[in-house]
């Protein structure tokens, strides 16, 4: 069970983890498609680069984001003693 | 010391059971293929492929009854992360994400990415921003969560009413998608099949609520993913010798880009706010696949991705899923699985679209109008494709195609036996049924838990809660059947409206309720009502053409308005009491007793003391 004095520090770390997980991803989501046309002139594995990054790249980033988030947040929980009992 | 939940046992034979289901489904498909070759009538094969999967999934739903509220509303809190992610993914996708999105990729190419990106990002956002806290609160519905978080009964009622809007739109959309595929599969009229599929969805979750739904939706997800993967993989093997459509469609993309240049397809430039996805029915093909922003403008692309993100993250049909996992950690993990499964699907859909487009460009475009390939003539006979030739040969802009048929048309174009087409159709029915059942169940639970029992001071007995939930489910089934027959709009549009409403009315308040301590009950009520009102106004203005923002993008103004109203009213109203802040502090920490379980325990102690 988490100590009362730990709660503030725990929530500060949790907030920072949330922002570091979501903000870069959100930026890529907004900016990348706008430059896809330019990137399409280059190719990777025969696929136009802009399409490849928007379709394959963003989905890979999404999965990596969640995977990293789950592990990092789990570490934060354990560090502050906020994890579940079982 | 009380533990977080009573039962933490995960059924160790889940893998075996779903292995048996997958084997049964595979043998059903093989049987259909054999029966077709043996000359059994076409109608017999159709009925086998319609009734077989529904009977298998329905049996799973009927054989898992529940008599305890914890089982009925939260599947006993013992769904492992993978299966929870599987159900999350298939509910987020549904018929809209599989049938309509494949068609959108086929017709407008690159521009359809805004939807697939938005939905997968929405799952990420929900997993990070909302799911762990919903799981810790342990409430069965979103209005109950908000009511507990702010200790406010009016907010609970308002939230239930507001959530009904996106839920009913989603219900109507998924019922229409299921009816479309089922009508094609059984050769019946669409309204009859709409009633039939809604009744099927109700029967599949009636016995055990969330427990039945989790079992049958996992099975439907397996069926739908198989139906998506099998034709795409075989075609990928045929055209590129590598059974990975997700990776190999890039080379075909190069081929069709060359073909499109050779056939002089027009370069379109859409205004920044244009949102021109193909409507239901036969629509002309116009755009080059790889060209960006030819049908959907650049601004509309980004806005749609953001609205779909917020709408999926706050979708009422998904928000009750985290509650059924064994703990907060598993709830987070299930979103990893959901993103992965949805991601693989989102890589397969453009592959199907590209393969179909290549076959169309190669075999139909440029041919004499009276010598079209037999598969295209078959598609014309079914009524999903049309050519209006203006010259001696067919040119690209003369071809019209039914958006929702693209996934199924691939099996025609590749020359597969009819049973393969029926497999895809059965997969489409299964996916739409899963999303339909999820929204039916979420709506019925909100109706019974928050409207009927939420108004009473005394907690209801277990039997009364489940009984009311079943009555509400029956009532909602009739409403959904009527909606599916009566709703005139394009189902994809209904789906997008549902996203817009949950983005503007639900998303801001849910986010603030967890991440901003100062939010008050009045702020939350104001945020929900403002978001809903602004979204309705923006949709009406957009549909009437009174301003440049298309109706489906109404969330782009509704969401900031909802945030602004919630923040402004919260700041103006008195600070939340110590009790409310304490509840929030409990919700934010994964460890310790689930709030809902603690309330039940305290109630039991109280009744024991009185007795």
Briefly, what CATH class of chain B? Mainly Alpha
Q: Looking at the structure, what is the overall shape of chain B?
A: globular
User: In the CATH scheme, what's the topology name of chain B?
Assistant: Sodium/glucose cotransporter
Mean pLDDT of chain B: 92
| Number of helices, where a helix is a run of at least 4 consecutive DSSP H or I residues of chain B | 21
Order of helices and strands of chain B: HHHHHHHHHHEHHHEEHHHHHHHH
Unreliable parts of chain A: none
The major beta sheet of chain B can be summarized as: 3 strands, antiparallel
Question: What report would you give on this structure?
Answer:
The complex is a heterodimer of chains A (86) and B (611). Chain A is mainly alpha-helical. Chain A has one domain (4-79). Chain A has helices at 7-31, 36-39, 49-79; strands at residues 43-44, 47-48. A two-stranded antiparallel ribbon of chain A has the order 1-2. Chain B has one domain (14-504): Sodium/glucose cotransporter (Up-down Bundle). In chain B, strands 1-3-2 form a 3-stranded antiparallel β-sheet. In chain B, helix 8 packs across helix 15, helix 9 packs across helix 10 and helix 9 packs parallel to helix 12 (328-363). The model of chain B is unreliable at 1-7 (pLDDT under 50). Classes of the chains: A mainly alpha (86), B mainly alpha (611).
Features:
heterodimer, A: 86 residues, mainly alpha, two-stranded antiparallel sheet, B: 611 residues, Sodium/glucose cotransporter, 21 helices, 3 strands
Note the topology.
The complex is a heterodimer of chains A (86) and B (611).
Chain A: H1 7-31, H2 36-39, E1 43-44, E2 47-48, H3 49-79
Antiparallel strand pairs in A: 1-2
Helix pairs in contact in A: 1-3
Chain B: H1 14-37, H2 42-62, H3 69-74, H4 81-108, H5 113-137, H6 142-150, H7 153-186, H8 190-206, H9 210-240, H10 245-262, E1 282-284, H11 298-313, H12 328-363, H13 374-382, E2 385-387, E3 399-402, H14 406-413, H15 418-452, H16 462-486, H17 491-515, H18 521-544, H19 555-572, H20 578-588, H21 595-610
Antiparallel strand pairs in B: 1-3, 2-3
Helix pairs in contact in B: 1-2, 1-9, 1-15, 2-8, 2-9, 2-15, 4-5, 4-7, 4-9, 4-12, 4-15, 5-11, 5-12, 6-7, 7-8, 7-15, 7-16, 7-17, 7-18, 8-15, 8-16, 9-10, 9-12, 9-15, 10-12, 11-17, 12-14, 14-15, 15-16, 17-18, 17-19, 18-19
């Amino acid at each position: 069970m988490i100590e009362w004095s730990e709660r503030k520090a725990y929530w500060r770390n949790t907030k920072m983890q949330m922002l570091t997980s979501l903000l870069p991803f959100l930026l890529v989501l907004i900016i990348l498609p706008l430059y896809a046309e330019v990137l399409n002139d280059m190719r990777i594995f025969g696929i136009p680069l802009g399409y490849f990054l928007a379709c394959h790249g963003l989905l890979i980033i999404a999965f990596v984001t969640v995977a990293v988030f789950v592990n990092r947040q789990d570490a934060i929980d354990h560090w502050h003693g906020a994890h579940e009992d079982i | 010391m009380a533990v977080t939940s009573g039962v933490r046992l995960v059924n160790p034979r889940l893998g075996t059971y779903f292995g048996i289901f997958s084997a049964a489904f595979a043998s059903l498909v093989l049987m259909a293929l054999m029966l077709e070759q043996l000359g059994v009538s076409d109608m017999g094969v159709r009925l086998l492929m319609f009734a077989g999967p529904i009977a298998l999934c329905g049996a799973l739903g009927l054989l898992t009854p529940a008599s305890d509220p914890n089982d009925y509303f939260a599947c006993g809190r013992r769904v492992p992360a993978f299966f929870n992610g599987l159900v999350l993914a298939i509910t987020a996708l549904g018929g809209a994400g599989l049938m309509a999105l494949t068609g959108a990729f086929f017709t407008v190419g690159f521009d359809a990415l805004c939807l697939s990106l938005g939905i997968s990002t929405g799952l990420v956002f929900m997993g990070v921003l909302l799911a762990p806290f919903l799981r810790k609160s342990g409430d069965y519905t979103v209005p109950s969560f908000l009511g507990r978080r702010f200790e406010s009964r009016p907010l609970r009622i308002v939230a239930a009413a507001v959530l009904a809007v996106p839920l009913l739109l989603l219900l109507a959309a998924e019922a229409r998608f299921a009816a479309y595929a089922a009508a094609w599969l059984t050769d019946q009229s669409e309204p009859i099949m709409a009633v039939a599929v809604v009744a099927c969805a109700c029967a599949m979750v009636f016995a055990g609520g969330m427990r039945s739904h989790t079992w049958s939706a996992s099975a439907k997800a397996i069926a739908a993913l198989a139906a998506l993967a099998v034709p795409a993989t075989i075609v990928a093997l045929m055209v590129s010798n590598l059974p990975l459509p997700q990776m190999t469609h890039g080379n075909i993309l190069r081929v069709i880009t060359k073909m499109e240049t050779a056939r002089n397809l027009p370069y379109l430039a859409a205004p920044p706010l244009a949102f021109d996805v193909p409507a239901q029915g036969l629509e002309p093909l116009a755009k080059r696949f790889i060209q960006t922003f030819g049908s959907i403008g650049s601004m509309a692309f980004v806005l749609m991705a953001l609205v779909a993100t917020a709408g999926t993250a706050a979708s009422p049909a998904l928000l009750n899923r985290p509650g059924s996992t064994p703990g907060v950690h598993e709830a987070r993990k299930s979103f990893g699985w959901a993103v992965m499964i949805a991601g693989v699907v989102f890589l397969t859909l453009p592959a199907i679209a590209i393969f179909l487009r290549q076959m169309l460009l190669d075999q139909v475009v440029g041919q004499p109008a009276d010598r079209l390939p037999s598969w295209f003539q078959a598609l014309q006979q079914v009524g999903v494709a049309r050519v209006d030739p203006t010259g001696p040969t067919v040119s690209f802009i003369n071809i019209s195609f039914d958006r929702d048929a693209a996934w199924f048309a691939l099996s025609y174009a590749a020359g597969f036996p009819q049973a393969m087409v029926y497999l895809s159709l059965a997969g489409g029915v299964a996916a739409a049924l899963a999303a339909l059942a999820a929204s039916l169940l979420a709506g019925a639970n909100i109706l019974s838990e928050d409207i009927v029992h939420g108004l009473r001071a005394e907690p209801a007995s277990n039997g009364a809660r489940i009984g009311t939930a079943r009555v509400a489910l029956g009532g909602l089934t009739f409403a959904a059947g009527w909606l599916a027959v009566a709703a005139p709009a394009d189902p994809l549009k209904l789906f997008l409206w549902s996203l817009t409403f949950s983005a503007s009315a639900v998303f801001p308040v849910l986010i603030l309720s967890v991440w901003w301590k100062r939010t008050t009950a009045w702020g939350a009520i104001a945020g929900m009502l403002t978001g809903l009102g602004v979204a309705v106004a923006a949709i009406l203005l957009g549909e009437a053409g009174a301003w440049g923002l298309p109706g489906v993008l109404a969330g782009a103004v509704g969401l900031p308005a909802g945030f602004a109203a919630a923040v402004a009213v919260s700041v103006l109203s008195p600070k939340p009491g110590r009790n409310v802040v304490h509840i929030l502090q409990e919700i934010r920490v994964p460890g310790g007793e689930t709030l809902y379980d603690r309330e039940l325990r305290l109630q039991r102690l109280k009744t024991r003391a009185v007795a």
